[in-house]
Design goal:
5 helices, alpha+beta, single chain, three-stranded antiparallel sheet, 36% helix
Length: 160
């Protein structure tokens, strides 16, 4: 089941984000960024973006989420225990439906260079790597510049 996030979801979502971020980004990003990506920082970011967050819930509870900011798929995380069960495919269909409903013909996302598992998933879902861009990421210690792979996806006009 996919639904809008609520404040009570934040602790679980922050843990999913923290664990997934460590899994997909450890060793790939500058130390200054890594040390500022704490459980608390993810909880704060979730609260700030809560209206744009959708969660996926199974019989075992909340297992993942996505966050869309305008035409960007800004975050997409799934608990390791829920991977390989088609859950991410359903989450991505929800992403595309939301982007279509918002009127975006093309969407984009940033993927850490070297996060090959995520890159394979995005490519399987129809996202195309169009190049490298520099993201400017805010931390309490200042802005960190990070080169990332930019992916884009034409959002089909009809239902997914």
């Amino acid at each position: 089941m996919l639904r809008d996030a609520c404040p009570a979801d934040v602790p679980v979502l922050a843990q999913i984000w923290y664990d997934g971020w460590q899994d997909g980004h450890a060793g790939l990003v500058p130390e200054k960024l890594a040390r500022n990506r704490t459980l608390e920082s993810f909880a704060d970011r979730l609260m700030d973006g809560l209206p744009q967050v959708r969660v996926v819930e199974l019989e075992t509870g909340v297992v993942g989420f996505h966050m869309i900011l305008d035409d960007e798929l800004n975050q997409f995380f799934l608990a390791a225990a829920a991977r390989g069960r088609g859950v991410a495919d359903r989450m991505m269909a929800d992403v595309e439906e939301r982007l279509r409903t918002a009127g975006w013909g093309t969407a984009w996302l940033a993927c850490a260079i070297g996060n090959d598992r995520a890159a394979r998933f995005y490519e399987k879902q129809g996202w195309n790597r169009v190049g490298v861009m520099t993201s400017r990421l805010k931390t309490p210690e200042g802005v960190v510049s990070l080169d990332v792979w930019r992916y884009e996806r034409v959002i089909p006009a009809g239902p997914v």
